[in-house]
Amino acid sequence: MSVVVTRIERAPAGVIDGLAKVGVATAHEAQGRSGLMHSSLRPIYGGARIAGSAVTVLMPPGDNWMMHVAIEQLREGDLLIAATTSLCEDGYFGDLLATSAKARGCRGLIIDAGVRDVRDLTAMAFPVWSRAIHAQGTVKETLGSVNVPVVCGGALVHPGDVVIADDDGVCIVPRANAVQILEQAKEREAREEAKRQRLAAGELGLDIYDMRERLASKGLTYV
Amino acid sequence: MSVVVTRIERAPAGVIDGLAKVGVATAHEAQGRSGLMHSSLRPIYGGARIAGSAVTVLMPPGDNWMMHVAIEQLREGDLLIAATTSLCEDGYFGDLLATSAKARGCRGLIIDAGVRDVRDLTAMAFPVWSRAIHAQGTVKETLGSVNVPVVCGGALVHPGDVVIADDDGVCIVPRANAVQILEQAKEREAREEAKRQRLAAGELGLDIYDMRERLASKGLTYV
Amino acid sequence: MSVVVTRIERAPAGVIDGLAKVGVATAHEAQGRSGLMHSSLRPIYGGARIAGSAVTVLMPPGDNWMMHVAIEQLREGDLLIAATTSLCEDGYFGDLLATSAKARGCRGLIIDAGVRDVRDLTAMAFPVWSRAIHAQGTVKETLGSVNVPVVCGGALVHPGDVVIADDDGVCIVPRANAVQILEQAKEREAREEAKRQRLAAGELGLDIYDMRERLASKGLTYV
Amino acid sequence: MSVVVTRIERAPAGVIDGLAKVGVATAHEAQGRSGLMHSSLRPIYGGARIAGSAVTVLMPPGDNWMMHVAIEQLREGDLLIAATTSLCEDGYFGDLLATSAKARGCRGLIIDAGVRDVRDLTAMAFPVWSRAIHAQGTVKETLGSVNVPVVCGGALVHPGDVVIADDDGVCIVPRANAVQILEQAKEREAREEAKRQRLAAGELGLDIYDMRERLASKGLTYV
Amino acid sequence: MSVVVTRIERAPAGVIDGLAKVGVATAHEAQGRSGLMHSSLRPIYGGARIAGSAVTVLMPPGDNWMMHVAIEQLREGDLLIAATTSLCEDGYFGDLLATSAKARGCRGLIIDAGVRDVRDLTAMAFPVWSRAIHAQGTVKETLGSVNVPVVCGGALVHPGDVVIADDDGVCIVPRANAVQILEQAKEREAREEAKRQRLAAGELGLDIYDMRERLASKGLTYV
Amino acid sequence: MSVVVTRIERAPAGVIDGLAKVGVATAHEAQGRSGLMHSSLRPIYGGARIAGSAVTVLMPPGDNWMMHVAIEQLREGDLLIAATTSLCEDGYFGDLLATSAKARGCRGLIIDAGVRDVRDLTAMAFPVWSRAIHAQGTVKETLGSVNVPVVCGGALVHPGDVVIADDDGVCIVPRANAVQILEQAKEREAREEAKRQRLAAGELGLDIYDMRERLASKGLTYV
Testing the interface with A: which of E59, E63, E86, E140 to mutate, by most A Cβ within 10 A? Predict the structure, then answer.
C-alpha cells in the first residue's frame, strides 16, 4: 500500500518557467477553467509567483514521516505537493524540512494542511501555500506514499504535473498538456493586453465585447 | 426581473470624504452600532481607507456578466458593491475589470464572493474587500440587476448609500443619514481623543468612565 | 460568580523573555506537543514574537465591560488573554483600550473573539492575536471574571501562565514548568542548529535520523 | 434607535395558507429564484411545512430581552423572525417562550442564532428553523427593535412579509407580491405534475424540454 | 507524559441521575450559564438524555489507541469524554468499542472528533455526541492519556465531573458542585413550571417578569 | 471540453450488492483506509445503505443542465455522482429529476452541492448524500461533462467505480479492485464478529489485541 515511485516524467523546464510567468488565473482560463485548488490554500507571504514539477506525498493526519521520504525524490525545479488522508491542520513542515528541500532545488510547498516556522520560511524565501499556519507538531509512526496521484485542495495532481502558484492560489496543469496550455495562455495574455489599453482609455466592456444586443435579447431592462 | 437603475442619488462628496476619514469603527458606533458587513469580508491589501457611493450589482453564482453592465453606471467617487444570489467564492473580478472601473472613477470594490489578479490590483492600488481570493473563472450567460437594494456581507445596501471600508471591514451609512452620522462621528472622535490622552497617562477607564460603583452594585467581587 | 483575583504568581522575567526568544513551535515541542491554541487565532500584523504572564478575562458575548476591569490588574510584562462565554466575533478591543493597556506595561492581547482599530494598533506596535478583525461594537452591561482559569482558543490558561505568541500562533506554558521548558527548548534549538547545517549541505533526514531501516520494516516499497 | 412598530400589514390568510401548501422550493422559483435564506438555517425536526406573517425582532448577541417584547406583537398566524446584530449561536429561545408564543397563535420561529429545549419544542409541535441548537443562556440587558426590516439568514425581511418554511429551508415572499406569487406557484405546480408523470414513465428531460439541439450547438460531444 | 490515572472520585449516583432528569439547559443555567460544550457537538440520534461521571481520554489526531486503555477505566454509570490534541474528524469509535464500553456499564460517549457505525450504535441505543460522523479509520501508534483534565468541545472537563447530555448539547458540572447545582436546578424547574402555566394561559412575559418599566427607562419606544 | 462518455465498465452486480451489505466503514478499512468522501456529505434521511456503479457528472456552479444529460446515461443499479467546478450549495436536484433517475433504475445521488424537495425524495425513498439542503434554483446555460473522472467530496471517482453509501458517509471502491475488496471486507466482518462477542462478554481490547506490553514499552504509565 505504501509506495515510493522513484521515476516520474517532468515537463520541459522552459515550459514550466513560462507557465510561472503567465500565472494562475491565466493558465486556469487557458485550460478551460479547470485545475484550480480551493481558495482555502493561501500563501504564507505575498508576492511569490512560481511553477514547478509536482512531487506528491500522501500522509496520515498528524504524521509527517513521509516528508523525509519525499524530499529524497525532489530535484531542481520541483514543487512538493502534500495531501493528507483525512482533514488535518497540524504543522507538517517547518524550517528544517525547508532547508533540506531547498538544498535539493525544491521551489516551494503546497500543503492541504498546516505549516509552521513561517517567519523563518519567509526569511529563507521558501514559499508555501497552506490551509493553515499552525505550530502543532506531528509524529513519525505511519507510512504513506510518494509520487502517487493525490487530491490536494480539491484538485487531482499526478506526479510530474506542472503546478503554478501565486497570490491568486494554485493551479495544476497536466504534464501532457503543458506545452499547449502555455501557448494558449500566451495568446490570451496578448488579447488581454489590447483590451486593457482600451478599457484604460475609458471604453466599456459592453462595447468592446459587443454585449448590448445579447443582454437586451435576454431581457435586461434599463429604468 | 433583471433591471438596471440608471439614476441614483448620492451623498455630497465632502460628506463621503469626511466619513472615509473617521473610518469604519467610528462611523459604525456613531450610527448606533449598525451597518457593518460580516468579518468574513477582508481587504486584499492593508492600509486602504476609503468611502464612496454604492453602485450595487446582483449576480448569479459563477457568472460575472453583470459586472460589465454595472461598470457603465459608475461615476467618479463610487464604490462597486457586488452580491450574489447564492453562496459563491469564484473570482468575479480581476485586473481588466479593475482597469475599466478605475477609468470611470471607481474607488474600489466590495464583493461577497471572490476576486483574482490580486497582485495586479495591489500594484494598481485598486482596493478590494472580498470573501475570498480565488482565480476561479466565471461565465457570462445569466442576467442579474444593477442598482437594486442588495444584501452584501449580511448588510442591506441601497444604491447611493455611503460605503466606508478600511482595515476593520466595511460599513454602510444610509445616504439620508450621512450628514448627521458624520457629525456624530466627529464628536465621538473628539471625545475619544481626550480620553486617549488620559489613558496614555495611566488613568484607568474604570475611573474615567466612573465604572466602579456600577460594577460593585452588579456584584463584582475582588478577592 | 463574578470575581477579580488580584494576586497572581508570575514566572521570572528572564524565563519569560527566554521563552519569547525560542518561540511558539519550539516551546510547544519542548513541552511534549501541548499548550497550543487553535490555528484560528492569527496575528493582526506579522513579525511580532513576544511572551508575557497571562492576565485572564472572561466576558459574555458582545460585552467588553470586563476589559476595563482586567486592565487594572495588568503589570509590566503581562499579556492579556481574553475569552468569551460563547462564540463571538465582535470587536472587544481597539486603540483606546490598547493605549490604556500599554500604559500599564501590557505587551499584547490574545483574544478568542474580534478586535478593531487594527491600523492604529499596528501603528502603536501593540500586537494582537485574534479570531477575527471586526469593527462590531460591544456593550457594557454584564459582568464576567478576571484572573480565573479560562479556555481560550481551545487551550486552558491559568493566570500567571507564560504565554508565547508569534507568527506561528500562541502557546501556553504552565508557570510551574516554565524554567524547565525553557531549558528543554534551548537544548532542542541547539540540536536543531546542528541538523540545519547538515540538511543545508544536502544530507537527507532519512540518513541523519537513521530512518531507512524502520521505514523498510514497516513495509515501505520503492518502485 | 430601539423601536417597536405595533401596526403591520399582513397578507390574506388564504394566500398565506396557499403558499404553505406550495412550499419553499416552488415559491422561490415562482418569484424568480429570490427570497431564500441561507442553507445554514435548518429545522429542529423534520416534516413541518408552514407559512405565516413575519413579525421581526432584532437583538444584540447573547441577549434575548426583546423576545418578550416581540411576543406581545404576535397574532394568530404569525411567524417570529429573529435576527441578531452580530454573529451569535446562543440559545435565545426555549420552551417557555414557545409556550407564550403559541398561546398568541404563533406558528413557529425562524432564528439566525441558536435555540434550546428542542425536545420540548418538538413535543409541543412548535417548529423552529435555526442556525444552531445550543443550550447557551442569554441575558436581558440591552434593547433591540421589533417589526423593523431585518436581514435574517442573508434574506431581507419586512414585517408582514409572508414567510414559508419547510424541510428545504425558508423563503420570504414580499407581502405585496404574495397573491401573484401564489398564482404563479400553482401554475408551476400544475406544469410540474404533468412532467412528473412523463418522467416517471421513462421519458427523458432531454426530450421533454427539447434540449438536445441547444446542447449540441453549445458544443456538447458524445464519445 | 502519557499517564493513566486509575482512581478518580465520582459524584453520588442519585445526584447524577437527578442531573440527567433536569437536563442540559436547566443545569447550565443553574450553575450561572457555564460548563457548556460548543454547539458543534451533536447527538448521532435524537431523544437520549443522560448523565454520567467523566472518564477522560486525550488522543493524537487519527490515532484511537488510547480508547482501549480508557475503556478499562470505565465503571457502571460513566461517560467517556474524548478529546484530541489537534483538530480531527476521524472516526475514532465504532460498534466494537461501543460493545466493549457498554459491557463495562458506560452510558455513552462525548467526542470532539468523529464517530462511525452510527447505524449500529443507534440500534444498540449507545448514545454519542460528536463533532462529525465519519467512517475514516485510525491507527494505533501513539500514546495519549486517560483521566487527565481535558478541553473537549471548548469546555474544561476533570475526570469524575458530571456530564449531562441531551438534544440541547453537553454540559459539564464540576463534581464538587453537583449536589448544589442539582438543588438549584430543581428550584429553577419548579419556578419555570409555574410560569409555563401562566404563559400558556396567555399572560405575557413582559408582565410576569415586570419588564415594561425597565424597558421604557432604557428608551424603548412604541410607534 | 464538454464530453459525454457513453460507454463505461461496471463491476458485477453481485459484487456491488455485496459491498452494500458490508457498508462504508468496513469497505474503507478493507481497502487500506482510502476512498472516503469528506464528512460534510450527509444523507438527507437515515437508514439507507446502498451501493451502485458511478455515473459521474461535472457541472458549473448554479447550473444543473448536465443533470439531464447524465440521467440518460444511467442504467439499472447506477448511482449518480455529481461534482461542481467550484464551491456551490445550490439545489441542483429535486423530485422531478429524482423521478426521472428512478425511472432509469438509479439507486441514489451523491452530490457535493445542494439538493431540494427532500420531503418528496424521502417519501420516494430516493436516497441522497449532499453537502447541503437548499432550495436555491439553478440555470441551464453552461455545459459540463458526463462520465469523466471527478473529485467529489475530496475523493477521486472514475465512472464505473463502485460507490457505497450509508449513514457513515460515502466510500469509493475502484472498479478493478471491487472483487478483492469485497472478499477482504467479508473476512474483516468475520473477524470482527468473533471479537464483538468477546467484547460483549466483558473481555478487554487491551487483552484481545495483546496491547499491554507494547503500550508499556512506549512509556505508558499507570498512576
Answer: E86
Is A90 part of any domain? yes
Residues E198 and E171 in one domain: no
A164 plus A197 within the same structural domain: no
Q: Is D120 annotated as a binding residue?
A: no
Tell if the pTM clears 0.80, that is, is over it.
Answer: yes
C-alpha cell at C16: 519569560
What DSSP state is assigned to residue C184?
H
In chain A, residues with a C-beta closer than 8 Å to the C-beta of E63 are 62
Q: What share of chain B is helix, strand, coil (3-state, %, to 5)?
A: 35, 25, 40
User: Minimal CA–CA distance to F96: which of F137, F52, F59, F36?
Assistant: F137
Q: Provide the grid cell at B37.
A: 458587513
Residues C132 and C196 in one domain: no
DSSP 8-state symbol, B36: B
Query: Smallest CA–CA separation between C69 and chain B, in Å?
Result: 7
DSSP C106: -
> Which structural domain, as residue segments, surrounds residue F205?
189-218
Asked if B86 lies within 8 A of F62 by C-beta distance, the reply is yes
Predicted complex ipTM exceeds 0.90: yes
Q: Do D214 and D125 have their domain in common?
A: no
Going residue by residue through chain B, which has 223 residues, state the pLDDT in tens, using 9 for 90 and above.
799 999 999 999 999 999 999 999 999 999 999 999 999 999 999 999 999 999 999 999 999 999 999 999 999 999 999 999 999 999 999 999 999 999 999 999 999 999 999 999 999 999 999 999 999 999 999 999 999 999 999 999 999 999 999 999 999 999 999 999 999 999 999 999 999 999 999 999 999 999 999 999 999 999 9
Verify that A133 and A208 share a domain, yes or no.
no
* Distance separating alpha carbons of residues E84 and C63, to the nearest angstrom: 31
Beta-bridge partners for A81: A56, A110
Mark whether C107 and C201 lie in a shared domain: no
CB-closest option in E1, E86, E156 to C151: E156
Residue A68: inside a domain:
yes
Q: Are residues D152 and D55 in the same domain?
A: yes
Q: Is residue C223 part of a domain?
A: no
Largest distance between two CA atoms of chain D: 67
Chain A residues lying within 8 Å of E139, measured CB to CB: 60, 141-142
One domain, residues A96 and A147:
yes
Q: How far apart are CA D220 and CA F1, in angstroms?
A: 8
CATH code for the domain of D70? 3.50.30.40
Q: Which residues of E touch F200 (CB under 8 A)?
A: 99-100, 102-103
Of F112, F131, F122, F109, residue with least CA distance to F42: F131
Tell me the one-letter amino acid at F59.
M
Minimal CA separation from D49 to chain F, in Å? 10
Is A95 annotated in a binding site? The answer is: yes
Number of domains in chain E: 2
Nearest CA in chain E to F170: E135
- Residue A199 known to bind ligand: no
Domain for residue F52, yes or no? Answer: yes
